[in-house]
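User: Predict the complex.
Assistant: Input components as received:
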Amino acid sequence: MITLLGKAISRSARCLWALEEVGVQYEHKPLDYATGDAKTPEFTAINPGAKIPALIDGDVAMFESLAINLYLAQTYGKGALWPDDAAGQAQCLQWTLFSVTEAEPPGSTRLVQFIFKSKEERSQEVIDAAAERSKAPLNTLETTLQSQSYLAGDSFTVADLNVACSVEYFVRTNFDLSPWPKVKDWIARCMDRPAFQAMTAIKAKEAA
Amino acid sequence: MIKIYGSFVSRATRNLWMLEELGLEYEHVSLDWAKQENRSAAYLKINPAGKVPTLEDGDATLSESLGINLYLVQKYGQGGLWPDDDAGRALCVQWSFWAAAELEPLAYGRIREFLFKKEPDRDQALIANMAERTGPLLDLMTLALDEHAYLSGETFTVADLNAACVMEYLDRSDFDLSGWPKVAAWYTNTYGRPANQKIQDQRAPIAADMMKRLQG
């Protein structure tokens, strides 16, 4: 049985989305790092760094949300989330790294400013700098999506899932994506997927 | 023939190291940033953002240095730098993303201060803050190295290569690793591999020139 550790309102949501996409049975343990759940001896035995999200699948024990998603795609999503051809697989690896190095930094800056800080604590200077830094990755995505409907080709793969995990931060913080119409359309399609909706429902239930 | 684009003073060295480890034949196309060779129409066709490195291998074209290494190892390093077992493979992917997501922002932030600023202009508060945040990352590596000789198990894999080529920034900016002896020993052993030595020897004179330009 696959077990995902980490409360849904954390980067675990990304892995819940991937688990719902590949359609495998899994158990979700919503550990909370802040309350020390992740530091229990039971957990640190398999995950000494007490990082969440973490995934356990037989002998496999790992952390890093987007790496978990690549593992799930490569193991359970062959021919779908993980394309069959080397060119498509290369694109999946490239875009997943792009999500970490290019898209997430300005996206998570916005998330921190708009979701985790009060209005008084927000820094317009930081928000503006993040907006500036967002342009290059959004331009890169727009260019790619001008010639194909998804990032690794014409079907939804782990490339889309992993990049959408970062671009979703822009949507959640009401960033104006209208200068990037292809990106705007693409992220809407990604977030419309039943698996994304299933993940959203798990988050809503947890928040209630 | 595999083609790798990017100079010896770019993240292409990470891929050159991997190509040497795998013993592959390849063509190295060194693009000169100062001459804007990365903005030529021909290069923008394969990498619209004009970033380096880019790898071409048959039908596959991709950027992102650590992603290129994962691609190469999955295609050409089976049973060697890419382990045979799922557990080892999962750790290879995990540590590669950990290097990109956790270590690189701090290590690159640090090297920027050292490369692009002269000593009196460096932001010492920023350097100290980044050093403090680097500590827990090295603690996490130590936990893994307490378990086995390398990050993903008992042998050298892409996990080690990808982590070491990011940790290089700490080394080049004289970060004191003595508080993490296992990490220090692992780094020396990993970074000193003959395949990397071959690349670093070619890089050295080019890097020395660049440093002269940057530091005057």
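Residues 86-116 of chain A form the longest helix (31 residues).
Let me know if you want any component modeled separately.
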